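step 3/5: co-fold with manganese (III) ion
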Amino acid sequence: MFELPPLPYAYDTLEPYIDARTMEIHYAKHHQGYIDKLNTALKDYPGLQNKSIEELLSNLNEIPEKIRDQVRNQGGGHHNHSLFWKIMGHRKTATPTGSILTTVENSFGSFEEFKMKFTEVAINHFGSGWAWLVADSSNNLIIRSTSNQDSPISEKQKPILELDLWEHAYYLKYQNKRAEYIDAWWNVVNWEAVEQNMA
Ligand code: MN3
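step 4/5: write tokens
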């Protein structure tokens, strides 16, 4: 059965940009909730319980139709949040350096250009979902968003950087002001973790 992975830092580590209360509810309640519901969906499918979350989401067509939506939504919720915690943390560098910076510059012109485009996609995404930097199968970098808890890995894209756009990620501190949340979030991106995702 799937379990909540440890949060790699304390609830208040991302203060003041992301507040401790939001982190606690988001991690201990929302993420745990996706895992509980995923486990419930897989209860009668021991063959699927042995698969990794990546395997399940990469092959949604092979999931029995009866639980496919649950695996897509709850499994996606589990996987997306697991990735999201990792790409945040105490920031060591204000902007990416080294190979990730070069790759971003090659794909988007400059880091500022990349940041602007990603922010625009995140602000303009309608409703709940995620903003992403992904690599496609030819290793092209793409900025996109997905709805609900849909994962790019279901479309053979590799997640590199992601931002939770659900109101539960920011409502306590920012209410309806998604743009302010996004602006603050750039301060807690852990570029070393993002670079590892790119490798
Ligand atoms: Mn969330």
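step 5/5: annotate
The pocket of manganese (III) ion is lined by residues 26, 30, 81, 164, 166, 168-169 (CB under 6 Å).
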